Amino acid sequence: MTTSGTTPGQALVTGATGYIGSRLVPALLEAGWTVRVLARSPEKLEGRSWADDVDVHAGDANSLDDLASALEGVEVAYYLLHSMDGEGDFVERERAMAQTFAAACDAAGVGRIVYLGGMHPHNEPLSTHLYSRKAVGDVFLAADTPAAVLQAAVIVGAGSASFEMLRHLTDRLPVMLAPRWLDNRIQPIAVADVLHYLVGAASLPAGVNRAFDVGGDEVLRFRDMLVRYGQVAGLRRRRIALAPVMTPWLASHWVGLVTPVPAGVAKPLVGSLVHEVVVKDGRALEEFTGAPAGGHTPFDDAVARALVRADAVDPAAEGEEPADALPGDPEWVGRQQRTETWRSIVDAPADDLWAEVESIGSSGSLGPRGALGPWALESTGREGTTRSVRLRSTRALPGTARLTLAVTPAPHDAGQSLLTQEVTFVPHGLAGETSWWGSYPAHRALFTRVHQGIVERARVR
User: Fold this and answer.
1) What single-letter DSSP state applies at residue 70?
2) Structural contact between residues 120 and 275, judged by C-beta atoms closer than 8 angstroms
3) Where is this region: Disordered (predicted)?
4) Of 73, 95, 80, residue with least CA distance to 39
5) How far is Cα 230 from Cα 239, in angstroms, rounded to an integer?
6) Phi and psi angles of residue 45, each rounded to the nearest 5 degrees, phi first
């Protein structure tokens, strides 16, 4: 079987619950491909907007039998799996799993394997992370099935481990002491542009079997990326001093301490920053796929797109762009929302309690003598028997604060109802974190009084 180069057919996506896979599936569907996904835990696909539009095969990519079933009738197979989990021996585990996948594709007569690896320099010792990415690509290039091995450096978009590390470091540290190799050159690429190349690679001519570097138009130093992120995010200028000595091991533990990115993810990523990674083959892939519509996304625009929903009510809800956070992304993706919740059973009918909540929503100020400042009505809603109102603070804060009040009738007592009060705060940078934790006792006390006040007034009604 060979890919036609013109008419999309059946594609298999492995790693569909991962960062790239979860964004590639809808891109392939939009391009006209019929998509099948191989998932070890199909339940993790629940909630995806495309879950009902794909053929889900439960199975393990380490099993030849599972792969044989999943690859039946497949024209192009996407390999988006990795073992970068901090468990150790991930190089050999990744190589063995790739060999199994390549053998299964050869046996099934798949037309093409497409793999996304890491951009790396030639003729120098590689970090463990990049060495493993290269080794997996070499496995596919040596297979009978033609392979397109795409190699990217830092991918810019919410959910990308490299971008999240950059985001959290910049958000939290106005001044940082960083390794000298943060001056190494990197050619980042927007996630939307990566998806363009991945979709296009499915239709390469059958005789193409090679690796392709993919990157944006700008070559930056990682420290420049930190500064530029801060500018786009509206943070004060970040100041970076380079330490004469800081090993990748020490730097990775520092990142693990300062950011929520797990050490098992941060360690190999930090280790790879000792290399300069710049596109070496020009735009070879574009000879077949063409450039992304409108050209490559500039770095600042890619960052801005990743930040559009940074202060969303539910940052992990389904977004409209690949740069958005998606359901199923790890908890450390995006700005870390802080939440406090109060619940009370109120001796008052739901209508009376709701009347008090509505008066809060229309008053424009909260707390004793307006101590919590002015608030704007953001939305009202109803789900089943629960009515809710959401307010957003209009004070000048180093972050975004919201208050949600919900009223639910008691199931068996018309004279009682449930009041749920939730305060959320999305901090902006270190000032936001300091504000949340520094004023936590006072705000906790004030919002407790708000909650108790609603309860008491509803009882009086």
Assistant:
1) H
2) yes
3) 368-388
4) 80
5) 10
6) -85, -10
Supply the pTM of this predicted model: 0.87
The fold of 338-459 is Alpha-D-Glucose-1,6-Bisphosphate; Chain A, domain 4 (3.30.530)
The answer to whether residues 351 and 407 touch, using CB atoms and an 8 Å cutoff, is no
Instruction: Please state, in angstroms and as integers, the Cα–Cα distance from residue 119 to each residue in 13, 132, 138, 203, 272, following that order.
Output: 21, 12, 13, 22, 10
Residues in the chain: 461
Domain-wise residue ranges, the chain: 10-308, 338-459
Residue 238 DSSP class: P
At residue 407, what is the residue type?
Answer: V
Local confidence band at 4 (pLDDT 50, 70, 90 cut-offs): very low
Residue 231: which of 315, 321, 313, 307 has the closest Cα?
307
Sign of CA dihedral 268, 60, 147, 283: negative
Cα-flanking dihedrals φ and ψ of residue 8, to 5°?
Answer: -65, 145
d(CA 386, CA 41): 33
Distances (CA, A) of 76 to 66, 161, 260: 17, 26, 36
For residue 324, pLDDT over 70 is answered with yes
Question: Can you spell out the DSSP letters for 340-408?
Answer: EEEEEEESS-HHHHHHHHHHHHHH-B-SGGGTT-BEEEEEEEEETTEEEEEEEE-S--SEEEEEEEEEE
Q: Which residue has the tokens 């940078």?
A: 429
Q: Classify strands 399-409 and 386-393 as parallel, antiparallel or unpaired.
A: antiparallel
pLDDT tens digits for 404-433? Answer: 999 999 887 778 999 999 999 999 888 888
Are the C-beta atoms of 274 and 181 separated by less than 8 Å? yes
CA distance 308 to 161: 18
Q: How confident is the model at residue 266 (pLDDT cuts 50, 70, 90)?
A: confident
As given in the structure block, the two tokens for residue 315 are: 């940052």
Cα distance between residue 399 and residue 319, in whole Å: 21
What architecture is the 10-308 domain classified under in CATH? 3-Layer(aba) Sandwich (3.40)
How many Cβ atoms are within 10 Å of 319's Cβ, its own excluded?
A: 20
CA 186 to mean position of chain CA atoms: 20
If one counts every other C-beta atom within 10 angstroms of the C-beta of residue 153, the result is 28
Q: Which two tokens stand for residue 309?
A: 């929903």
Rounded to 5 degrees, what are φ and ψ at 368? -55, 120
For 331-364, the pLDDT digits (tens) are 888 888 899 999 999 999 999 999 999 888 666 6
**35, 25 in Cβ contact below 8 A?**
yes
